[in-house]
Amino acid sequence: MKAEKLGKFEYIFNPRTVAVIGASDSDGFSQALMGTKLRDNLFLVNPKYKELHGKRCYASILDIEDGIDYVVIAVPALLVPRVLVECIEKGVKAVHVFTAGFSETGAEERKVLEDEVQKIARGKVSLIGPNCMGICCPKSGLAFIPDVLTEEGPVGVISQSGTFAEQFLSIGKLRNVKFSKVISYGNAIDLDCPDFLEYLAHDSETEVIALYMEGTKNGKRLKAAMTEAAELKPVLVLKGGVTEHGRRAASSHTGSLAGSPEIWSSLFRQAGVIQVEDFDELLDTTLALSCVPLPSGKGTAIITNSGGFSVLETDLCVKAGLEVPQFTKETIAELRKMVPLAGTSINNPLDAWPIFYNMPGTTGTLADAIKTLSHDKNIHSIVLHFDEVRYLRHVLGEATENFLKELVKIMVQGCRYARDEMGKTIMICVSLDAYSEDEVDRRYHLLAKKAFEGEQFPVYPALGASIKALSNLYRYKAQYRNS
Q: DSSP string of 313-350?
């Protein structure tokens, strides 16, 4: 990317000063930015107020003495052209038009209004939107909803939908995903998806790109930008509007021409990006790509505590394109030293439930078992399934919490060795009955989840999600990183 274009994006993601035009006592942008490091360099504009959030409120951006790098426009659609002209007069570098009510409405007069805004901005200011949430950047403090900024991290998100970007950020924070930049670009009358792809492809702070899109104005340029990005880092894409009804919804949402699903799938394959099917799969796979090494093969070991579930888990892996191979004779011999014969299986999946609880007859810990599996030449990934909170409470009562803390510490130790010393891909499933209303169960579940997340392991609430994400990691490695 040319230096001139990089400089333009610097004002977008790392502005020195920000103004919200259309600020009020309830608008989300002012509230969000007041809680970040940009608070002291935030200017509020609305002629209806003299003061907002303890700060002076200006009647016009032209009344602000300081220079302004980045502006959020949150005024009614018919006022946007006049406000945009004032921003250009002020010398603003980048403008985010939050306002909706343009071409996405389908009304001809609103398409004309959008064309007017585009004409005003062209060549004079970088414009994001209209009809979008704009930019979130933890490093600079730029945010579009309150209380969602995460620690800085490796995940860049590009979303045509504002709500999608907001949900991905909010739920991602709960799942321990850490973001570099989150971008909502809406109707894209100036900066479009390919522009942001080109930037994130060369952004040293972004290691994984997650993309949600409904359509494009320039398929050739989009393909070129995707191809360039995918050659440098993993790119995951979720395409909205793959059904007839979905395409109609996309047209009314962002004014996009969605196209046929076959054409899009072909474009994604040719560009080298990984297409996913839904929001959860995009988030689950992004999480895994951001914190574990890619698997070197299909061989997957499953550690469980149920013979019945082990059958279903094997089926899930095979259906997802993975393999659940037999352990080598050496691995089985080592495991047999640790695990008693009765009621256990030291095949793959490993059902060695007594070792979870230091039962009589065990001579090693779960960490020892995990380390043993990590040395098996047939095993490239390990899925650890832990769902014993309720059982532990039933057996141990008040002693559960201390026992659980020690057990989790042991599991983390083994998983850390397998990942850091042996380079294995580790996926963690800490499951809890979704219908449980027991607060103690939930607290213990959170204890286990946080322990693994603290060591940067991807944690999933359901086994199927962890296996699907692992399958996507293998698919990416096999298709795009083995050449």
A: HHHHHHHTT-B-PPPPHHHHHHHHHHS-STT-B-SSSE
